[in-house]
Amino acid sequence: MLKIFNTDLHIHTCLSPCGDLDMTPKRIINTAKSKKLDIIGICDHNSAENVLISKKIGKTFEITVIGGIEITTSEEVHLLALFDNDDDLLKLQELVYENLPGVNDENAFGLQLVVNENDEIVRHNQRLLIGATKLTIEKCVEAIHSLNGIAIASHIDREGFGIIGQLGFIPEGLELDAVEISPNITKDKLTVKKFPVITGSDAHFLADIGKTWTQFSLKEPVVKEIKKALLKTTLKI
Amino acid sequence: MKLKEIVEKLNLEVKSAPEMLDKEVTGGYVSDLLSDVMANAREGNIWVTLQIHQNIVAVASLKEIRGIILVNNRQPDEDTLQKAIHEKIPILVSKLSTFELVGKLYQLPITS
To answer: Is residue A45 within 8 Å of residue A112, measured between CB atoms?
Structure first.
């Protein structure tokens, strides 16, 4: 029996240097509830350190939180990686960390806050999360799939960090599970027809959560089911 | 050479931080990959790029870059502009392509 789930898979927390400090997991989840979202994806830049706490809070508020990372590839393309299993997600985070040089400069780029369920700061992440990893996009997609995740190219309509803006086109043979468009355009404006299209808010501020979302028909709110739905591509935007 | 002089000679449109045009430019860097700019640009450089998103301002501020020249008449995003005003980073717009602009920079001469 399939159910409809309103899904915004692309939300940043206060761990992302460009994320607003109000973007604590608790506030994000409250806002997502008020926007009538059923599933949210937490995807910070090159890190998943606020995911587990977000999942925990999500359970209390009866909203499904999917854990992910928005990787910056070596070509400076943004790529969403989403997982059901926390161990798989943390393995990917480890791979990203091994390939992410540099130290954050809080004045230049912003604070990177890991928080607890009471919105208190646990620590400042010191890595250069705004930076690019040394992993090519092909390598990233391969790693995500080897860990049972799905790989979605972020905001492909946007020049900055979108795959088409950075590379000119989507490389032949790249096995993306979907492409994401930003709230700025609608699906009919797209020239890419090869991949299933989703839309996500890429929210860095509370007000942007659920600015746009994708309706999935799923048996249950998990990545495995989303993958099936993407293959059917009966998505509404 | 002062940034102001470069603006006048190359007919650049000043989008932000006009109060910073008295600064001395000691060299230049051209790249559209931010990680590359972070690794290789030097303090005092003028940076030529076509990227218009707000991360360019953060990188320029971190590397103490004197100003950013956007080529092909590309306009900065609104949030880029706000950040540049706040961070006091001059964003300058040229109608020329990167190739032509750098040629003219060399003739000024900005050659290192």
So the answer is: no
In degrees and rounded to multiples of 5, residue B14 shows phi and psi of: -90, 120
Chain A residues touching residue B62 (CB < 8 angstroms):
105, 108-109
A63-109 residue pLDDT tens: 999 999 999 999 999 999 999 999 999 999 999 999 999 999 999 99
Among the partner-chain residues B33, B52, B55, the one whose CB lies closest to the CB of A130 is: B55
Question: What is the reported pLDDT for A192?
Answer: 66
Task: Go through B95-109 and write b for each residue having 16 or more CB atoms within 10 A of its CB, e for each that does not.
Answer: ebebeebbeebeeee
HSE (CB half, 13 Å, CA atoms) of B66? Answer: 21
* pLDDT per residue as tens digits for the range A171-223: 889 999 999 999 988 777 776 678 999 999 999 999 999 999 999 999 999 99
B35 with A18: Cβ contact below 8 A = no
